[in-house]
Amino acid sequence: MLDHLSHVLPVLLSDVDEHAHINFLAIPVAAIASFVLGGLWYAPFLFGKPWAARAWAHTGGKPTGGMAKAMIVHFFSDLAMAVGLTVLIASALTDRLPFDSEVASGAATGALVWLAFLGPLIASFCAYNGRGIVLWLIDSGYRLGSLAVMGAILGGWHG
Questions:
Q1: Could you tell me which residues come within 8 angstroms of residue 138 by beta carbon, excluding any fewer than 6 positions away?
Q2: Within 13 Å and on the Cβ side, how many CA atoms surround 108?
Q3: I need a labelling partner for 148 at 20 to 30 A (CA). Which of 8, 80, 85, 112 fits?
Q4: Each residue of 60-88: b (16+ CB within 10 Å) or e?
Q5: pTM of the full predicted structure?
Q6: Residue 63: which domain range?
Q7: CB-facing half-sphere around the CA of 83: CA atoms within 13 A
Q8: Residue 70 neighbours by CB under 8 Å, 6+ apart
Q9: Cβ–Cβ under 8 Å, residues 22 and 158
């Protein structure tokens, strides 16, 4: 399976306009920005307290798998999303968006990815796991913001 996966990115990038430039430094920068936004979003002074009270209600208010492991997985998930957004932003899709700047087009692409994939996916997860609307709003709100921020960074640096 890994052999097949190693061929996916080159195939996707082969359809990218030959004049589009991918700034590979922007990918980890976008992932770090998303990770930092998550740290702020889930901090006690923003949404951390209501999120923890609901997300960990079944465990007595404590995480079950360890925060260090969760944060490592979170960062690599952000990195994977930044790679995917880079492919979308470097494609013709963003050239067709009605914005004057690549930053705005990148942010809109991130928001579109949230609208089409992450928002509904998180909604389904919350519905099946009894997590409720508040957790959906907090979690999907973070992902909307993080994808828009990553998209803005990747869009602004892709040209």
A1: 41, 47, 50, 51
A2: 13
A3: 8
A4: eeeeeeeeeeeeeebbeebbebbbbbbbb
A5: 0.82
A6: 2-158
A7: 10
A8: 63
A9: yes
Q: What is the pLDDT of residue 58?
A: 66
Instruction: Please tell me the distance from the alpha carbon of residue 24 to that of residue 28, in angstroms, as a whole number.
Output: 8
- Hey, what are 70's tokens? 């969760």
Please determine, for residue 112, whether its predicted confidence score (pLDDT) is greater than 60. yes
- Encoding tokens for residue 36? 């930092």
What pLDDT is stored for residue 19 in this prediction? 46
Overall domain count for the chain? 1
Q: Say whether pLDDT at 48 is over 70.
A: yes
Distance from the Cα of residue 63 to its chain's centroid? 22
C-alpha 113/C-alpha 88 separation (Å) is 9
